[in-house]
Amino acid sequence: MNAKKFPQRQCIGCGEMKNKKEMIRILKTPEGEFVVDATGRKNGRGAYICPSMDCFKKAVKGKGLERSFKMAIPKEVYETLEKEMEQLG
């Protein structure tokens, strides 16, 4: 029998392709707000990141979120996301 295929997503920090379920989704809501989507099912544009602070720091340094969302990201958004990632990890 065929093994079940899992959707793959690329981390905006390290650039590795991993299973979608292993990663954290950062979401830009239609209202323009940035949130961590723990369920992976909320509406909006999403970017994926590994659940490690190393990848988060690489994403901040390499402007991975800014490339994903094609816009400048305010510093406060990064601070909020960092706190949420620390709670999850």
Describe this structure in words.
The protein is of the alpha+beta class and 89 residues long. It has a single domain (8-88), classed as YlxR-like (Hypothetical Cytosolic Protein, Chain: A, 2-Layer Sandwich), CATH 3.30.1230.10. The chain is built from 3 helices and 5 strands, in the order E-E-E-E-E-H-H-H. The protein has helices at residues 53-61, 64-69, 75-88; strands spanning 8-10, 17-19, 24-28, 34-37, 45-49. It has a 3-stranded antiparallel beta sheet with strand order 4-3-5. Strand 1 and strand 2 form a beta hairpin. It is globular, with a radius of gyration of 13 Å. The protein starts with 7 loop residues before the first strand and ends with a helix. The mean pLDDT is 89.
Number of DSSP strand runs: 5
Report the average pLDDT across residues. 89
Class by SSE composition: alpha+beta
- Cross-sheet strand order for the largest sheet: 4-3-5
**What CATH architecture would you give?**
2-Layer Sandwich
Domain YlxR: 9-83
InterPro entries: YlxR, YlxR-like_sf, YlxR_dom
Organism: Ventrimonas faecis
Protein name: YlxR family protein
Features:
89 residues, alpha+beta, Hypothetical Cytosolic Protein, Chain: A, three-stranded antiparallel sheet, 22% strand, YlxR-like_sf, YlxR, YlxR_dom, YlxR family protein
Provide a brief overview of the structure.
By secondary structure, the chain is α+β, with helices and mostly antiparallel strands. It is built from 3 helices and 5 strands, in the order βββββααα. A 3-stranded antiparallel beta sheet has the order 4-3-5. The protein has a two-stranded antiparallel ribbon with strand order 1-2.
